[in-house]
Amino acid sequence: MLSLLLCVPGFALAFDVAPHKVGDALPTADAQALLARYAARPQQPWREPSEARIPAGPAGDQIRDGIDILRNTSTRVGKLAPDASKRMNWNSLNCVNCHQAGPSGLPGSKKFTLPLVNAVNDYPKFDIKSGKIISLEQRAMGMFGAGAVPIKVEAPEFQAVLAYLRWLAQDTQPGAAMDGAGLLPMKAIARAADPVRGQKLYASKCQACHGVDAGGQRKPDFAQGGGYMFPPLAGSDTYDNAGHMFAVPLLARYIRASMPFGASADKPQLTPAEALDIAAFVNDDTTPRGQNPNRTKLYPDVALRPQGFAIPENFAGQPPQAYQRAKFGPFRNINEHY
Length: 338
Hints:
By secondary structure, this protein is mostly helical. It folds into 2 domains: 2-177, Cytochrome Bc1 Complex, Chain D, domain 2 (Orthogonal Bundle), CATH 1.10.760; 195-328, Cytochrome Bc1 Complex, Chain D, domain 2, CATH 1.10.760. The protein contains 11 helices and 6 strands. The strands form 3 sheets. Strands 1-4 form a two-stranded parallel sheet. A two-stranded antiparallel ribbon has the order 2-3. A two-stranded antiparallel sheet has the order 5-6. Helix 3 (57-71) crosses helix 6, helix 7 packs across helix 10 (272-282) and helix 9 (248-258) crosses helix 10. It starts with a helix and ends in a 10-residue tail after the last helix. This is Cytochrome c.
């Protein structure tokens, strides 16, 4: 896979990981040094994209196709896509469900909701979840997951998505971080997240869109690949019990910048404590969710494992309170890297 990625035009090498390379597994000290370099990158201001700047001709057509795929992932490449030969994604979500649109209306253009505006400049990077240096292409392919049709880097749909990401990053500072990227920082909360409080908050602030069972609202043509009007937060068609969003602090930071509908990082509608409690309810172990059989292999370096990635298997032989504290806090660093 690596050799194939390296020969693809536009392979992203914005962040210098030398003397290491994509695919390398790093010992703790080397990983910590690279993570420190990554965190110390110069910061550039947020860049608001504009669809009006997309060029005419074939290059622009490819960028627009990438936009359409991110907006209509379920119809284009989802597990129920009308064209069975294109079912490269493992679920019926649209990429824009998580990588939300900002004022421009473009996927991945909303501050602090996992925006894609600076994605090209954020890779390669050391991924503590796998313990290896990964490329932008590898990250994007991983988001497609194990679809019925294996995703290939040379697929026109995948290349269109990469074209859009490269266009988003034009005129940015190569390798630099960006204000508004990633997730919204939150102040520390002295108490543990409370799923009981979170259930009440969910009922009043989230249930109308995401459903009583957090299963989302399907569009009328769901069976034909239409996807969701509002995406599920539970069940088998969303992140599993090893996904990044399964970490309570991470989900809380995402929620605060994006929910309820109409919220933004500049105008949040939830307090940090409310967001944390809702995340605790949604990610409680009693909530139905896909089970990842390989989750014990994730975050292999214990020294780099974030507190919020809490699974019972990592607390064997310890009192139940140790697992509960790791999962719900109080958190030593609510803004910890995942």
